[in-house]
């Protein structure tokens, strides 16, 4: 079988050249990594679940008018996406204290925040994706002030949508990370949600029991990661077997 040209291989995904100019094929691997790849494993079926879940969230966002890179799912592990220029930032939205914020500020995990907080990390594995203030982003030219204002507005819309959808199935959206890309339609630049939205990039807690249903299960050795992701997919009605 003819192989496609590899464009980029990351920790959990591979990008191949797409069938038309300006498109890519995004392949979801079963690899799980944490702590900047110091902890690694292969979780059978994770890629299939994340492909499905990311499709679900991206389609839902498009339905409410939030532009994304998603074009269509191709098969169990692959989706066709628009090629974008990724802004080198991890855009994190938090509703409750957890993870690095809880640690940095000495807060108890699960403490509700006064309002959703958007923060930025500079995407660089060798530096461990350090938290950066807006001042750095603008001074170093990673994004303009206008871009940043638009990114914050986009991130908060994603948060409203995701929190609502998850609440509807008994899950608390603690926090999540998105990546934003630039696409050009002729001379007109648009910001779109890119990469993936999945339990790899969110914190999701069962509202009743507090059970973690996200990558913290892997980070903290809390049980079977595929079971947790399957629970999320089942509740959202997007199990891969319902193809
Ligand atoms: O670790 P931290 O608390 O900063 O993570 C905030 C959110 O961003 C979590 O949902 C985490 O899964 C996500 N994240 C991510 N990729 C990273 C860093 C954080 O998806 N490189």
Strand content: 25-35%
Supply the number of helical segments: 6
The largest sheet, given as strand count, sense and whether it forms a barrel, is:
7 strands, antiparallel
Intertermini distance: 25 Å
Protein name: Phosphoribosylaminoimidazole-succinocarboxamide synthase
Enzyme class: ligase
Organism: Octadecabacter ascidiaceicola
Family: Belongs to the SAICAR synthetase family.
Tags for this model:
Phosphorylase Kinase, domain 1; D-amino Acid Aminotransferase, Chain A, domain 1; purine biosynthesis; Phosphoribosylaminoimidazole-succinocarboxamide synthase; binds cytidine-5'-monophosphate; ATP binding; 243 residues; globular; 2 domains; alpha+beta
Overall description:
GO terms for molecular function: ATP binding; phosphoribosylaminoimidazolesuccinocarboxamide synthase activity. With 243 residues, the protein is an alpha+beta fold. It folds into two domains: 6-82, Phosphorylase Kinase, domain 1, CATH 3.30.200.20; 85-226, 2-Layer Sandwich (D-amino Acid Aminotransferase, Chain A, domain 1), CATH 3.30.470. It is 29% helix and 34% strand. The strands form three sheets. Strands 8, 9, 10, 11, 12, 13 and 14 form a seven-stranded antiparallel β-sheet that branches. It has a five-stranded antiparallel β-sheet with strand order 1-2-3-7-6. A two-stranded antiparallel sheet has the order 4-5. Strand 12 and strand 13 (188-194) form a beta hairpin. The structure holds cytidine-5'-monophosphate. Cytidine-5'-monophosphate is lined by residues 90, 92, 98-101, 129, 175-177, 201-203, 215.
């Amino acid at each position: 079988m003819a192989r496609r040209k590899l464009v980029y291989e990351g920790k959990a995904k591979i990008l191949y050249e797409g069938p038309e100019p300006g498109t890519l094929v995004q392949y979801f691997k079963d690899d799980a990594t944490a702590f900047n790849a110091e902890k690694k494993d292969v979780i059978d079926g994770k890629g299939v679940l994340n492909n499905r879940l990311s499709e679900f969230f991206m389609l839902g966002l498009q339905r409410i008018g939030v532009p994304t890179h998603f074009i269509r799912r191709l098969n169990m592990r692959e989706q066709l996406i628009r090629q974008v220029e990724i802004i080198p930032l991890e855009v994190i939205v938090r509703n409750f204290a957890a993870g690095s914020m809880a640690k940095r500020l000495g807060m108890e995990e699960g403490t509700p925040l006064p309002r959703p907080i958007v923060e930025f990390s500079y995407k660089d594995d060798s530096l461990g994706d350090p938290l950066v203030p807006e001042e750095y982003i603008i001074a170093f030219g990673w994004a303009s002030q206008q871009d940043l204002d638009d990114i914050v507005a986009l991130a908060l819309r994603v948060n409203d949508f995701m929190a609502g959808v998850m609440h509807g199935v008994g899950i608390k959206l603690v926090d999540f990370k998105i990546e934003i890309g630039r696409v050009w339609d002729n001379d007109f630049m648009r910001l779109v949600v890119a990469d993936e939205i999945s339990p790899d990039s969110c914190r999701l807690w069962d509202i009743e029991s507090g059970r973690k249903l996200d990558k913290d299960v892997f980070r903290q050795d809390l049980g079977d990661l595929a079971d947790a992701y399957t629970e999320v997919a089942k509740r959202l009605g997007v199990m891969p077997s319902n193809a």
